[in-house]
Amino acid sequence: MATSLLEMRILDGPNLYFPHAAVRLTLDVRRLVDAPDDEAAALASSIGLRHATPGPTGTGFRQRFAARALARLVRQVATEAGTHRLPVRVRPERDVHRLVVAYPWRHRSRAEALGRAVAEVLDTLPVDDVDGLVERAASRVRDADLGPGPGALRPRIPVVAVAGSKGKTATCRLLVRMGRAAERCVGWATTDGLYVDGARVEVGDHSGPSGPGRLLARPEVDLAVAETAHHSIVLGGIGVTHNDVSVVTNVAADAPGVAGADTADQLAEVKAVVTRITRSDGWCVLNGDDPRVWSMRALTPARPWVFSCDPLAPAIRAVLADGGRATTLMDDCICVLGRGQDPDPLVGLADVAPNAGGSPPYAVQNALAAVSAGLAVGLPRAAVVTGLVEGGAD
Questions:
Q1: Fewest Cβ atoms closer than 10 Å to its Cβ: which of 2, 121, 244, 298?
Q2: Of all residues in the chain, what percent are helix, strand and coil, respectively (each to 5)?
Q3: Per-residue DSSP letters for 309-344?
């Protein structure tokens, strides 16, 4: 086994690196980072990086050089194996001896063989005949079985994906109530199980790629609500090719990280994946009071729908000017705003069921997010109001 390969993960759907299935390798690159300067320079020249400056051994400069060299090596092995113009993403980790490499795949076994072959090349460096080493690695990839294709499903029903550090479950719960008030058979994938029409049908964490797929496999479900945890995006990808409505409630700096996503900005980048796979004719529901969330509008193909507790928030002005919609509080009423339209007061805060949006201080924001998503996915106004004012079982 290649000692440079620390971990290989198969991301079976949209993920942090690509909008489709990818392989994620975590590699020990100390053979590149700690190599003497002359060996690093010789390697750079042999793989076409003739003007590269490797930098001192054991430094971040050398790690960045290793990232460039590794991306080049992955593409060379892939090209020799018959896959041309393979997109490759390489990300440094805090440990200068580690890099994360990602590339898309269509055939699982062949893609895994490429990952192992690249690690074996790393294990063999430095060598005088890099071209021969690459060719031998490529031959192993060519000889590998193709294997199955990606398992991410193309939804046959509307899908609402909910991400965020706080409030995912409460927002989903409200959406389920709204959907059931509209007499829809709602499937809900969450961290504690799979629910269909209010009843838990499976126990376990279904916030990862398996959740939406298991909902879509049930013919009675006609609306899917997918609670999407950031760790599942990093470690497994998303189980559907797209969603119709995405929601990001917030990004909390104290939320636990995973696999290199351990700062608020990195967490925001991960959570934004759900917004990037939202249909262009769908809606991206964003917290306008959270700058990291609000900035996600720049990369989504969907129409923006912002929610904010402040009706004078700059985010609301911006989204309305851009033809989007907004949900806010006005005179203690939850209101929906549209460009050139009068405010639509849905319900007074006093009439919202106690704890409908979860616990303070996020309860009101969760309610605003759920209202936005419910209307965005096409639920009737009356059903959205009913979901807010009536408590009870989910």
A1: 298
A2: 40, 25, 40
A3: S-TT-HHHHHHHHTT-EEEEEETTEEEEEETTS--E
pLDDT at 224 over 60: yes
Give the C-alpha separation, 173 to 168, whole Å.
9
β-pairing verdict for 303-308 and 278-287: parallel
* Residue where the block lists tokens 């080493």: 133
Q: Please tell me the distance from the alpha carbon of residue 139 to that of residue 153, in angstroms, as a whole number.
A: 32
The residue among 295, 255, 254 whose CA lies nearest residue 275 is 295
- Tell me which H or E stretch contains 225: strand 223-227
Pairing status of strand 278-287 against strand 243-248: parallel
The residues, any chain, with a CB within 8 Å of residue 266's CB and separated by 6 or more, are 257, 260
- Range 329-333 contact pairs with CB under 8 angstroms and sequence separation of 24 or more: 329/364, 329/368
pLDDT tens readout for residues 29-83? 999 999 999 999 999 999 989 889 999 999 999 999 999 999 999 999 999 999 9
Separation in Å, CA 97 to CA 59, 152, 278, 389: 9, 33, 36, 55
Number of Cβ within a 10 Å radius of residue 363: 18
Spatial distance between the Cα atoms of 266 and 66, rounded to a whole number of angstroms: 22
**H-type alpha helices, 144-184:** 168-181
What is residue 207's DSSP assignment? S
Residue 45 tokens read as 């020249």
How far apart are alpha carbons 233 and 274 in whole angstroms?
9
In total, the chain counts a number of residues equal to 394
